[in-house]
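Run log, item B.
One chain of 136 residues. Sequence copied directly from the ordering sheet:
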Amino acid sequence: MKRIRRMNTDKGLTGETGLTETVIGAAYEVSNTLGCGFLEKVYENALAIELRLKGHRVEQQKPIEVLYRGEMVGLYQADLVIDDSVIVELKATRALETIHRAQCMNYLRAAHLSTGLLINFGLSRIEVQRVQSFVH
């Protein structure tokens, strides 16, 4: 029997698969309620509320230091960090681009986390990409 591959699953990824599924479900709830056309900050606030209602610890605009040879050389701000485990980078644009994925990957490396979600609310149907980094 031919196996059907589902979209938007965490199969093959390590890390916080149950948590990413919860975040994606919450993002769909926000998208279904608000629709598209708002600024990223509106979606960030709404998603933070939705995840807190589900019992998760959510940090907004969390500063992440970038270190080089033990010295801070920069500071990023992650849109959301959920349960100290998953970084969520939000966009409200026509399409996700390679630079958005690279940005999320850099946040993961700097934060020493392995799992991130890139979520675009700029379309009538949200776009979700999982980003995986291998922490040393």
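Observations after the first pass:
- The domain at 17-132 is CATH 3.90.320.10 (Lambda Exonuclease; Chain A).
- Residues 61 and 79 are 5 Å apart (CA to CA).
Flagged for discussion on Thursday.
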